[in-house]
Design goal:
Oligomer: single chain
Structural class: mainly alpha
Strand order of the largest sheet: 1-2
Strand content: under 5%
Number of helices: 15
Number of strands: 4
Number of domains: 1
Distance between the termini: 31 Å
Largest sheet: 2 strands, antiparallel
């Protein structure tokens, strides 16, 4: 090599298209983090990691970043119709199966155990609010306008709702179509447009975070739906922006470490004051989100677990079944056992572990029986194979390298 030779640094895009990645593994880890964080909360433990922010909140942020990256590719390579069908097949069958199991099986078992007198199945079906309304009101992604959180008087844990994490599905689905609209308007080709939109959205949330009036106006108690949408969309678009700039961004562990360090710094800053609601304003999970995004994508491309989840993607099942299974574990209190007629309690941590262990079979069945067969239907809608997609994307990138 001559002294004047230019050494080109590899990019995230080159690494992404080289072969298998560990995104499925990372999603399973994030789903497990959400489950364990929620299980601790349902058990009544403090599940905060630092400054009133939990591992579950951070993991959900990572989920939205990954989804933004991957969904943007799907929006680029598909027609609007194929994209819509693919998203529906990925989200709704698993959700409806989970709702049905909760409404007509788990809910009744819980009700019968908690209210043994006169707890016939007919009486259970006649509860108000009952299992039928639970299913139908949550079937549209547990959206904030129709959702139902409980059945009768159950569950009765520290957080008396049947499936807390489902509320994020509505906002994620909305993010899908924001990205689709941006792609159809040319944001994938003129990627600077997407960058401007992402930065502008982040700037708005940051202003809300640092101004006390904004922090008290946009939180879980005020403007809840707008708060959630802005929070999740900003994280989602951070992943989308990394995707469209993947051939410009270096594949650098130092960038990943720097981004992670900035994010952790935001976590440690004393944002929470008397005028704010700790853990439920935009800060610091929101403000630090773009810095977390690069680290999450980089990890997914480099951790050596490409085979984990490649055949059985349990992440969605773990995410949607973790909470209701934890409610059942708490009901039965599986860490108690009879020894000479006495019950012994080992503390909350076995409950948390049992929640994870008992969730895995439900997640596996959800994938094998519901999710995978539903995804196989995508072939009928002509979704392009990955090799053809990558060749098309590379051609488009070379033609639009002015970005």
């Amino acid at each position: 090599m001559s002294e004047n030779a230019i050494i080109l640094r590899p990019t995230l895009g080159e690494k992404y298209h080289q072969g298998p990645n560990s995104f499925n593994f990372l999603r399973i880890v994030l789903a497990a983090a959400v489950l364990l964080s929620h299980a601790a909360g349902l058990e009544g433990l403090s599940y905060e990691l630092v400054n009133h922010y939990s591992v579950g909140q951070i993991a959900v942020g990572g989920f939205f970043v990954l989804s933004g990256f991957l969904i943007t590719e799907s929006a680029v390579r598909s027609t609007a119709w194929r994209f819509t069908v693919s998203r529906i097949l990925r989200i709704f069958p698993g959700l409806l199966a989970c709702l049905a199991l909760t409404a007509w099986v788990l809910g009744y078992i819980y009700h019968r155990h908690a209210y043994p007198v006169g707890a016939s199945y007919g009486n259970y079906l006649g509860l108000d609010p009952g299992p039928w309304s639970y299913f139908w009101k949550n079937a549209l992604l547990a959206n904030p306008f129709t959702q139902q959180s409980f059945i009768g008087k159950s569950p009765m844990s520290y957080f008396p709702i049947w499936n807390g994490p489902l509320y994020t599905l509505f906002y994620e689905f909305c993010c899908y179509f924001v990205v689709l609209a941006l792609v159809r308007c040319g944001a994938a080709r003129r990627r600077f447009v997407l960058l401007v939109v992402t930065v502008a959205l982040w700037a708005v949330g940051t202003v809300f975070s640092f101004i006390p009036y904004g922090a008290t106006t946009f939180n879980v108690l005020s403007n809840l739906n707008l708060f959630n949408f802005l929070q999740f969309l900003s994280l989602f678009l951070a992943g989308s922006t990394i995707y469209v700039y993947r051939d410009k961004l270096p594949d650098s562990k130092w960038w990943a470490l720097a981004g992670l360090a900035v994010y952790v710094t935001f976590l440690l800053l004393p944002f929470a004051t008397a005028t704010r609601i700790p853990g439920f304003t935009f800060t610091p999970v929101f403000v630090g989100g773009p810095f977390l995004a690069y680290a999450v994508i980089w990890l997914g491309l480099h951790v050596p677990f490409t085979k984990v989840g490649s055949k059985n993607d349990l992440s969605y099942g773990v995410y949607i079944y973790g909470w209701p299974i934890t409610q059942m574990v708490l009901l039965w209190n599986v860490v108690r056992f009879s020894w000479t007629g006495h019950y012994v309690h080992f503390g909350p941590y076995p409950v948390i572990i049992a929640s994870f262990v008992f969730t895995l079979p439900f997640a596996w069945l959800s994938w094998r029986v519901v999710e995978k067969p539903s995804l196989d239907l995508k072939k009928r809608f002509g979704v392009a194979p990955r090799r053809l997609v990558e060749a098309t994307l590379k051609t488009n990138e070379s033609e639009n390298s002015h970005g």
